[in-house]
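Histidinol dehydrogenase: structure tokens wanted.
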Amino acid sequence: MIRQLYGVDDGALEEVFKRRAGISTAMESARRVAEDVRAGGDAAVRKYTKEFDGVELRGLEVTEDEMYNAVELIDYETIGHLETAIANIEAFHSLQRPAGDMWLTEISPGIRLGQKFTPLQRVGAYIPGGTASYPSTALMLIVPAKVAGVPEVIACTPPRKDGTVHPLTLAALDMAGADRVFKVGGVQAIAAMAYGTQSIPRVEKIVGPGNVYVTAAKIYVRDTVEIDMPAGPSEIVVIADDTANPSYIAADMIAQAEHDVNAMSILLTPSELLAEAVDIEIEKQKETASRRHIIEKAAMGIYVVDDIEVAAGVCDRIAPEHVEVMVRDPMLVLNRLHNAGTIYLGEYAPVAAGDYASGANHVLPTGGYARVFSGMNTMQFIKTTSVQAIEREGLESIKDTIIALASIEGLDAHARSVSKRFEQ
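Answer:
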């Protein structure tokens, strides 16, 4: 598993980038299903739920009774843990919300500019299912939307084989404030939220992670509806030096690998001794992992680099979902990183902390999209509209510039719309 890496070498990282080719290969299948749902509505949703999930649904929506019964099944201790997570997520995301609904400031005499903040009116949240239940993702999507002021948040999540949704996921959705929940997953859920069906309303934006088909579907429907980011199989890059604990690193790499067979876990270190120790620890810890059958198929790699600066450069090239920094001076590395979904500093900052309870969001860009996309945050649910309040004095101070530039561009009517206001 241990390899030498000299500089930012794409050839040596070929396996990493090959793992990310899945979205493009899934696009044609996603397109076919999405178009069927666009044309067929609920009937197509039911057809693909039966085909892909092996479930024949009567009603697509979770009823009030189903929601109530699910919450009743959850013990008080678990409810308390959910409440702790919600409080931290709410606190962190409230800090991201603009202080007011708008602001205006005087740029120059007679010219006041500002922004108006408007929450989206209806958002669709995709909560993954399949190989595991993810109540934490329900919190990470619904709470920020409600903090932002979105009046209607609908959620789609895959049903279990008996046609129900896991009670813990339903409890999390209910506690977080989801307005409606549908027992639909996969591409058909994304398409239903994008185009609307007889049962599932059309939304303005779709948020949430999923497998390569869900991610491909989100990219495909983007001509109709906005999306948060391409968020597919999980990724972690650990940057560590000889001060790091190999047992912690191995545990964190395995934790991400257990998500999905397409997950990716990488260690970048200048220490050959650490690399060898982590390699041994991974093999040892895998022995007792309950999801070893998935971990064994995930991409795991240990790369020995020249120094920590090279490690930071390689990490930036990968642009991973998660970065853990376990070195003597974490802040120095932080300042050198530009492309990451989220960054954890220090040996007591595992990804699992952000996954569940620290309050930061775990819905993050994957597949290298951290180069251009931000992770889930409150502003994902808020539109900004510029506001311009201009008086005669203000327009007069810039009229010559406006007229000159409009004339240069050959847009005489633009120039005249200003000069008209100053004709005697």
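The two ends are 81 Å apart (CA to CA). Residues 41-227 form a domain with the Rossmann fold fold (CATH 3.40.50.1980).

Cheers.
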